[in-house]
Design a protein that fits this description.
Helices cover 44% and strands 12% of the residues. It is an alpha+beta fold. It folds into two domains: 9-23 and 230-378; 26-192, Beta Polymerase, domain 2 (2-Layer Sandwich), CATH 3.30.460.90. Helix 8 (232-247) packs antiparallel against helix 9. The protein is globular. 41% of the residues are buried.
Length: 406
């Protein structure tokens, strides 16, 4: 463990400012909410062809988790991931393809009614609704059916904890072998369950911050939406995602996917109170939660341990190597920054990982007041030797060395 005195005040302040610089404006969260609510209302209107199937649209992914980061330039868009769950349909009555076509027709009618010029695009698992250029976002809508009961039976039969299964769903995948068949073999998912698990890893920090905000604004805690506060875990995930993006700017196929970073970070977070402490705990512990199972790397979905988030690493071993390389780089850079009391060193070191212009903007958020030179020397906090990032990643090159235990 890293004790609270191991990181310099300058590095902690810089990480706070960096998280602020990466954060999505509250208006973007509200815009996302309006977008999926508007589509949900359309699907429930009197003339809707799917109204009788109980469609419910909700957000998933980083917007739901509070770990969305601001695009690095104006050409990039926010990706709002959402689900349309038909609560009164079951996969015993139709194929994935039929469900997708059913939803696609209604989304296209919605697009036309909203005078959205860009055509509806079909993704592998979703429909992609492109908003006007100025909006700088698009919405992916995944067709889904409820699967709570089946998921519970499946996990209990295998001896796994079924606590998150009540919100489990099945989804469509047009590259899957059962896409055109009436079968109960549909791809499984559980975005609501995953977000509840993620929230459980930071619950004390989240509630404390909501309570502080409620007191300062004279509101009740219940009235504070989660996106109004940010925990050290959420901030750490945001910083690591941007570090990943910058590191793999020219090798996008190899970059670790967000759900792997988010899952390993949440497992490694132990309720630390600052972003620096959270990053130290996460970078030190991330690879302890990568297992070796059935001859391959295994990062289980916490809500469905039969799903392996690292399943692509078997056919793309370069991705496992890339994760190891990225983790070592992140440890090196954040360790160097964490023990420095020189703001320019902190900015330059973190900037190597997240991009110099972003680091410079973060540094400008808190310009130090002018002080006499003697006071400057006297007030520099000594670098503590207590911070412990291992230099080398623990992802092994051979199967030996992986424990299966949590």
């Amino acid at each position: 463990m890293v004790n609270q005195h191991s990181l310099t005040r300058e590095s902690e302040e810089f990480l706070e400012d960096l998280a602020e610089e990466l954060s999505v404006p509250p208006g973007r969260y509200e815009q996302a909410e309006r977008s999926y609510n508007s589509l949900g209302e359309w699907l429930l209107r009197d003339a809707s062809s799917v109204r009788q199937y109980g469609p419910k649209v909700y957000v998933q992914g980083s917007f739901r988790l509070g770990t969305t980061i601001r695009p690095s330039n104006d050409a990039e868009e926010y990706d709002i991931d959402s689900v349309c769950e038909f609560q009164k349909l079951s996969n015993s009555s139709l194929t994935q393809q039929q469900l997708k076509v059913l939803l696609g027709a209604e989304i296209d009618a919605y697009r036309k009614a909203q005078s959205m010029n860009k055509p509806l695009r079909e993704g592998r698992r979703c429909w992609v609704l492109n908003y006007a250029d100025g909006a700088q976002f698009h919405m992916d809508v995944v067709p889904a059916l409820p699967n709570g009961q089946s998921a519970r039976i499946l996990l209990e039969a295998r001896g796994y904890d079924p606590r998150w299964t009540s919100t489990a769903i099945v989804i469509t995948d047009n590259e899957g072998p059962t896409y055109t068949l009436v079968t109960d073999e549909w791809p499984r998912s559980n975005p609501k369950g995953y977000s509840e698990w993620f929230k459980s890893r930071m619950l004390a920090a989240l509630e404390r911050r909501k309570r502080i905000l409620a007191e300062s604004t004279r509101a009740s805690v219940e009235d504070i939406p989660d996106y109004k506060v940010r925990t050290p875990l959420q901030a750490a995930v945001m910083i690591l995602k941007r570090h990943r993006d910058h590191t793999f700017e020219r090798r996008k196929d190899e970059r670790p996917i967000s759900v792997i970073i988010t899952t390993l970070a949440a497992h490694s977070y132990n309720g630390e109170e600052t972003i620096g402490q959270a990053l130290a705990a996460i970078l030190t512990g991330m690879d302890k939660h990568i297992h070796w199972h059935n001859g391959q790397h295994w990062i289980p979905n916490p809500t469905d341990p039969l799903e392996n988030f690292a399943d692509k690493w078997a056919e793309h071993p370069e991705r496992a190597a890339a994760f190891s390389e990225w983790l070592q780089k992140a440890r090196r850079e954040f360790y160097e920054a964490a023990r420095s009391s020189d703001r320019s060193v902190v900015t330059e070191t973190v900037g190597r990982g997240v991009g110099g212009s972003l680091a410079d903007r973060a540094a400008r958020r808190r310009q130090p007041p002018a002080r006499p030179a003697l006071l400057n020397v006297a007030s520099v906090a000594p670098a503590s030797p207590g911070l412990s990032f291992p230099d080398r990643s623990r992802v092994p090159t051979k199967p030996q060395g992986f424990g299966g235990e949590e």
